[in-house]
Amino acid sequence: MSNSTKLVPTPGQTVGPFYGYALPYDKDRELLAPGSAGSIRLQGTVYDGAGHPIPDAILEIWQPDAEGNIVHRTGSLVRDGYTFTGFGRSSVGNSGVYTFTTVNPGPTEPGAAPFISVVIFARGLMNRLFTRVYLPENEEALAKDPLLSSLDPERRKTLIARRDADGGLTWDIRLQGEGETVFLDFDGTGTGGATK
């Protein structure tokens, strides 16, 4: 090959389809046992650009514990029912609904807005999508958050969950179209920004 030949990157391939026997594992969506002290349900629906539920997406979440500590413990793939590792995975059902049993994340530094990091894999996506879901309380912390404050108010709303009457959180994800969720673009330097 000559020095003047330019190599072209191999194009990406669609993420999925996912096969039920390969990715799920026992209690994958239970970051702690349902009914445990402090446990909440995080739930929602994943929608495509036409507003239809996506039946075969997979979500992964990473989050701090209730005190805002980043947990460095093993056990995410073999759950024991009480060790909180901060990682979970949930496939959506035919109705596009996902659910996790977790805790309200604490702020990782004083005055910061608590959030859960989310990654979405779905058929038709060339790459996984990164985003966040914020707790709806503490409007002062939400207003000071660097990511949220960089967005216009309508876009900001797509990253803030609704608090349910039972204390859980509901947060829907829209991959395209009206009300599209804000997704993050990481540029390889460890910094990221909102893409939409």
Task: Set out the fold topology.
Layout: E1 39-47, E2 58-62, E3 87-91, E4 97-103, E5 115-121, E6 129-134, H1 139-144, H2 146-149, H3 153-156, E7 162-163, E8 169-170, E9 173-174, E10 184-186, E11 192-194
Parallel strand pairs: 1-8, 1-9
Antiparallel strand pairs: 1-4, 2-3, 2-5, 5-6, 7-8, 10-11
In short:
The protein contains three helices and eleven strands. It has 196 residues and is mainly β.
What does this entry look like structurally?
With 196 residues, this protein is mainly β. Helix content is 7%, strand content 26%. The chain contains three helices and eleven strands; from the N terminus they run E-E-E-E-E-E-H-H-H-E-E-E-E-E. It has helices spanning 139-144, 146-149, 153-156; strands at 39-47, 58-62, 87-91, 97-103, 115-121, 129-134, 162-163, 169-170, 173-174, 184-186, 192-194. The strands form three sheets. Strands 1, 4, 7, 8 and 9 form a five-stranded mixed beta sheet that branches. It is globular. The mean pLDDT is 88.
